[in-house]
Write a structure and sequence with these properties.
The protein is built from nine helices and five strands. It is of the alpha/beta class. The strands form two sheets. A three-stranded parallel β-sheet has the order 1-2-3. A hairpin with a 2-residue loop joins β4 and β5. α3 crosses α5. The radius of gyration is 18 Å and the shape is elongated.
């Protein structure tokens, strides 16, 4: 399982910081990978927090409990924890649905940056967000794959009536 988690990360709808410090949250997966050198841990934790656009907000609070962060900060912390182990793929399950618009924007900006180097698979019910962020889109309905293709085609020239009705807001 640890080997799988090192190449595949998961970020859920509700942030799940561990009941420990900000630093220890991000270092958690690194320690599972047997990284013990404090200088390497510090370097990788800072890098991950910077990637998650959180470093400037928490650099003076690394020893504080992660559960004291705001919801948006907790979500970016969980993303940093995921990034720290340098996965190849990150799955996002409604990662911004419970966040305020400012936090959502920060995470969307982060996703646009991350997708340059990683494979991102994101589940969202927010059609505008899917159109802004994705290169490819799939519509799943009642457990079935209705349509898959490049995002522009899905949103402007869908092949299936169900897709057209969903992306235009006729249902869903």
């Amino acid at each position: 399982m640890i080997q799988l988690r090192s190449v595949l990360g998961m970020v859920f709808q509700r942030p799940t910081p561990f009941p420990m410090s900000v630093f220890d949250n991000v270092a958690y997966g690194l320690r599972l990978k047997k990284i013990r050198n404090i200088n390497i841990l510090k370097e990788k934790v800072e890098k991950a927090l910077r990637q998650a656009a959180l470093w400037d907000e928490v650099k003076d609070r690394l020893k504080d409990s992660a559960t004291g962060l705001s919801g948006g900060q907790q979500q970016r912390l969980v993303i940093a924890r995921t990034l720290a182990v340098e996965p190849e793929v990150i799955l996002f399950d409604e990662a911004t649905s419970a966040l305020d618009p400012l936090s959502t924007q920060k995470i969307e900006d982060l996703l646009l940056e991350l997708k340059k180097d990683l494979t991102i698979v994101a589940v969202t019910h927010n059609m505008q967000q899917a159109a802004r962020l994705s290169d490819f889109t799939a519509l799943l309905y009642l457990g079935q794959l209705v349509e898959y293709g490049d995002t522009d085609t899905i949103f402007t020239r869908p092949r299936h009536k169900t897709t057209e009705e969903y992306v235009t807001g006729r249902f869903g």
